[in-house]
Amino acid sequence: MIYLIDHNDSFTHNVVHQFSLFDKVECDNYNNISKNKLEKASAIVLSPGPGSPKSYPITSKIYRKFKGKKKIIGICLGFQQILFCEGAKIVEQKKIYHGFQSNIQVISDKSLFKKGKKFKVGRYHSLKLKEPFKIKDFEITMRCLESKVAMSFENNKNKIYGFQFHPESFLTINGNLLIKKILSA
Questions:
Q1: From 34's CA, which of 26, 28, 66, 154 has a CA 20 to 30 Å away?
Q2: Active site residue: 85, 144, 154, 166, which one?
């Protein structure tokens, strides 16, 4: 079972539908977390949402408790939340990407995806990871070809993955393939 933590985002149920293609999904609001579901879940998904990671201290506690114990996947705000918990800075971008399709590329040969592979993805974010970025066991694996902003990370040792873009968006081509690959890792 996959447990999805909803950060009050309009995309959350699209994420639920996408992950439901691969396993049973339970979804609760971040203010109404079920400890029982957290314990039973094989994976925890941190949803997109408004605001910044510091606005979600409960999610930060969940991440810290289950890091290295369960697969954790962050999407958009969830991507930022994981990195924020690891000590990274999340900052405003000069250009806001709400409803943009961007070309991204796999830049790491340690990625679950083939280095050099390109994807078209849907972006809905005004914040980004401040770089340079150096956190043990975390590696930026994809970047936007235009802005060079980090679009994904992988921590294969602890089974922690993040996408700054929205794999569930109609603007993301092959989003289901991305999720399937991460869930099977």
A1: 154
A2: 166
